[in-house]
Write a structure and sequence with these properties.
Blueprint (H helix, E strand, L loop, with lengths): L7 H30 L8 H54 L1
Helix pairs in contact: 1-2
Length: about 100
């Protein structure tokens, strides 16, 4: 018997939810990526070109942060899955040792 009481199905469900949210975030970010980095200048002057370049750079920075966030969600989901499986295997091993 363990000192912890872990509902492995709930932890696995949480991992699934995190993975789904990460997938949705990746898809929506990818869908808007072109609009974020391909900003066209409003006029043919240097200020408009500089402003468009700054907006494109900000869009690229956002895409980098969003990609990191998606990666962290996937890492969290993987950690939750690992924790659920590890706890379940430990409980099975403990139960088996008690029956022997």
């Amino acid at each position: 018997m363990s000192l912890l009481d872990v509902n492995t199905a709930a932890v696995g469900g949480s991992a699934l939810i995190e993975a789904v949210i990460g997938g949705e975030m990746a898809a929506t970010t990818a869908g808007g990526a072109a609009a974020l980095v391909a900003v066209a200048p409003l006029a043919a002057d240097a200020d408009s070109a500089a402003f468009a370049a700054a907006l494109s750079a900000a869009g690229g920075a956002y895409l980098g942060v969003a990609a990191e966030h998606v990666g962290r969600r996937y890492a969290l989901a993987g950690g939750q899955n690992l924790a659920a499986v590890t706890y379940l295997v430990g409980e099975i091993a403990n139960a088996t040792s008690l029956t022997l």
